[in-house]
Queue: 3 jobs
Job 1
Amino acid sequence: MNVSLLPLLPHSMPPSATRDLPVLPTVLSKLLALSPNQSGYFDRVAKIAALDPPLSIKLLRAVNSGASSPRTPVVDIASAVARLGPSETAGIVTGLTVTRVFFPRTDSQKDLWRHAVAVAVIARDLARAHPSLQRCHEAAYAAGLVHDIGRFMLFQDDVDGLERTAHLWKTHEDIALNERQLFQIDHCQLGAAAWPLPTPLRDVIRLHHDYGPIRTDYELLVRTIQVADLAEVRVLRGGAWRDIPEAKRPHWVGQQAGHASWPGLPFDAKAFAARLPELSHQVAEAVDALGLGG
């Protein structure tokens, strides 16, 4: 099937196309078990939302639009929940009862969520270790979580398309190219145009597969998500880093988590390599919390 989504971009995007992104059943059940009157309600909602890109998008979209729109854009999940307040947050949670749930069955389907959460965890780690990003590490987490939201949109009504494209790419550049051949649009273009998100998040979604020179005020954040994206697939997935002798890991990490067009990794490869055992544990914990099984 060769379906064109171009008519949806950008101004004619129907509200249902963004509102109705499916959430995981485990996420929905955890949210519906909460009460706005519970102690720590905001923290619990934020923790659950941090596992589900579609839900995070709903919260970030709500807080940055309409009556809730703050003077300074909100770019992290915990701040979004706190800013919305108990009534509006509870309303969004209640609205999920009529939202479709999605039961991922194949590895490709499960990897939509696994990859998003893993990239978010890695991005937060990178930001914490970078002097220019330390104060916005939760924004880096949110950016990592939603960077592939366009893929959720592309495949929400065509899950077989995910299987058809999974084996077609060898490099990260191939992903967007194959999507454009199949849909006449890629997930970066689609995701960036779908929501009135703050510019840092929108630029990450739009540019995270552009490895050459990019025009944005948030280049370091975009590069952070790109490094996290590459590191998840090439370094941490399957424990690939464990097969590399410790003395050689910094150089190997620099190659795997970087891009050939870059002069070098925009992070300390030696420090990143040293954090891999703990980071691998953090990623595994976060992915396990999704409840997707093996």
Job 2
Amino acid sequence: MTTPAKQKLIAKKYNAWLCKLSNFKQSKVRRYLVVILLIGFASAGYSTLKYTQAASGDYDVVSDNFERQSLGSSWTVNFGNVGIVNQSDVGLTALSGAGIVSWVGSTLNADQFSEATISPNKVSSMLTQVFVRRRSSDSARYAFHYDADPNDGLVDEWQLKYDGVPTAQVRILASNNTVSGPQNGDVLRLEVRATNPVELKGYRNGALVLSATDSAASSISNGTPGLTMRLGVGTTTTYPTAVFENWSGGSLGVASSNTNSSTPSTTTSNTNSSTPSTNNNPADSNPTDVSPKSNSQLPSSQNTNTTSDPEQQSEVATNKNSKTTLYKVLAAVFASIIVSVLIVKAYLHFKH
């Protein structure tokens, strides 16, 4: 028979056990709360980091120095015999006359860049091109190159081009014949931003050469960056032949409103998708269009292009992209906090 003294002792021990259990639960809840809040802050911190990257410059940057035996799975050869040359460059490894290669090693934003250094061993007859947003459905791409086919009687000039399609669909978005052509060792860079209109800028050694916009129905909203190489019409070379020494690509941050370039540039806004550029090069009849070459822009009577202010466009893009990115960051932060609170409330409800 349990005495009153024993009953009191048991009750006291039971109450002490309940108190410890309650403290344990509270401590466990606090630990869960700390972990959830840390996850929320980490998510907010990651979002803030992405916003900082986007606001300050390039991010998700990838690069390739081509110092190996084979091109590898990070690249897709779209046309020609493209491969590694002398374990140091990318170029044409066998007779094909032209080559196109796209980066597929990572997924980049639609606002992206493609940048390459011309090999010191490139032959003068080989033409070079960097491109962005190559569309897989029809091979269309935005390209930047120096149009210098020999013996064709046409003006040598820098071009921003809607390329990779049959000749009737090819469009010259902007051209500039006041800047000399690229030399071996030069760095070519093409940037693309936004849609409707698409905004393009081409650089040589960091100096702006051309800028343009594309509002045509066929404009490209997304795709992959990469490289194009082609022998000039009527020229030959020995194989393998090196073309590019290295390449880099990545996602673009918010555009700067300061172009800061003393290099002359031509800016056009192309809104007429039915206005093709004429082209005497038979290679352009191929839907993969590996040829950078085209005649100058159509006469003004046949061309609806209008001049636009690149600095004004860039400033508008900066404000728009900054606000959009900031809204996304704030949404992510608030979502993290709300989810954390809901999880804690649900835990407390079911435990008590």
Job 3
Amino acid sequence: ERNLAFLGALAPDSIQGLLLENGVLVDDELASIHAYDGIESLVISSPNITDAGLEHIASLSGLRELILRDAAITHAGVATLAESLTDLTSLSLEGCEAVLDEAAESLVTLEGLTHLDLTGTGFTVIGLDLLTDMTTLETLVVVGLGLTEDQIEALDAAMPDCTIVAEHHGDAA
């Protein structure tokens, strides 16, 4: 656990937020994170984090904000998070390319979620349509999904109380 060894010097209840952006963090190094249940905000940027690593993160019952960048996770990992982290208010899966439409089924169970960032995931309009029932969402970020202006407008109309952050790629003729 070379990358998280510094946590041993801190009292478990002294950490509210943790930023791990070194890019080399691996799943096993997250095994000791459960001792820091007071963490409310966690940012991890590493292509080496998989669904197995999310099982460790799922033990953080106090977590409210989770930002996973460029992780090699799938809808199965998202399901693990949704089952355990029911109090999440903000979730970013930016650059998690293997998170596909199947993850929508788990995401809709996060009833307190107000911010969801799907930038650079494998979501399509099919999965996004399933998210339109998420009435607590205030912000949905769908940058990099290749949506047309018409698709963005339809999503915006289906979620009138949610700000949709997107860029469009023109409409099919």
